[in-house]
Amino acid sequence: MIRGMIFDFDGTIIDTETAWYTAFREAYQEHGVVLTLEQYSTCIGTSLNSFNPYEYLMTDLNLPIDKDEFRTLVQARHAELMELEQIRPGIQHYLDSAKEAGLRLGLATSSSTAWVEKHLDHLGIKHYFECIRTADHVANVKPDPELYEQALACLELTPSETVAIEDSPNGSRAAAAAGMHCVVIPNEITNFLVFDAPHYKTDSLSSLDFEHVISRVFANSSNILA
């Protein structure tokens, strides 16, 4: 029986990821560089260690760009695009249904606490989460399982009785590494990526019945809904 759910944030609760890719892609085009989704995807749902889109043009291509000005322009464009975004379909229903069913709710994200709490407050949903774990709490972010392991311990849940709600390959890898079941709701960008960790995939939570998720038996080792 499922007793808890742990949500990712960026791209899962609200689609910040598509706006980031669009903002960076447009900024790169201004300098005559094509930012492919394949290249950008390496930093989705994880740290910027493998690919830092803020610095790549300067550090790898040696373009004479003011780093602070570039960052400011990208972030301003992202904020503009985010004005069009709302909480993703089905998320609010799942939060309300989980609370009504007595499930424990957590959030585990590779983003910073300040970033996440700002958006949770704006969306008016911060109070749903008993436990929030961010990049500020761990040594390693996703695909490392540490974020999920900390959230599980905080909620006093075992992996087998908990479902992760994710949107990215790095997130689903982290959930699988923590031994959890995982439902993937890819967004406009992550829908084109390859998911190689066990998961159940659906277009949105609004098309996946909540009762089905918490009452159906998961395969013991595959993390896929039976």
Look at the helices and sheets and give the structural class: alpha/beta
Mean pLDDT: 93
Count helical runs. Answer: 9
| Low-confidence runs of at least 5 consecutive residues | none
Order of helices and strands: EHHHHHEHEHEHEEH
Q: Specify the biggest β-sheet.
A: 6 strands, parallel
Instruction: Indicate the proportion of strand residues.
Output: 5-15%
What's the arrangement of strands in the largest beta sheet? 3-2-1-4-5-6
Keywords:
single chain, 226 residues, alpha/beta, six-stranded parallel beta sheet, 6 strands, 37% helix
What does this protein structure show overall?
- The protein has 226 residues and is of the alpha/beta class.
- It has helices spanning 16-29, 37-40, 56-59, 67-82, 91-100, 113-123, 146-155, 169-177, 210-215; strands at residues 4-7, 104-108, 131-133, 162-166, 181-184, 200-201.
- Strands 3-2-1-4-5-6 form a six-stranded parallel β-sheet, sandwiched between helices.
- Helix 6 links the parallel strand 2 and strand 3 (131-133).
- Helix 1 packs across helix 4 (67-82).
- The chain is elongated.
- The mean pLDDT is 93.
Short characterization:
With 226 residues, the chain is an alpha/beta fold. It has helices at 16-29, 37-40, 56-59, 67-82, 91-100, 113-123, 146-155, 169-177, 210-215; strands at residues 4-7, 104-108, 131-133, 162-166, 181-184, 200-201.
Topology:
Layout: E1 4-7, H1 16-29, H2 37-40, H3 56-59, H4 67-82, H5 91-100, E2 104-108, H6 113-123, E3 131-133, H7 146-155, E4 162-166, H8 169-177, E5 181-184, E6 200-201, H9 210-215
Helix pairs in contact: 1-4
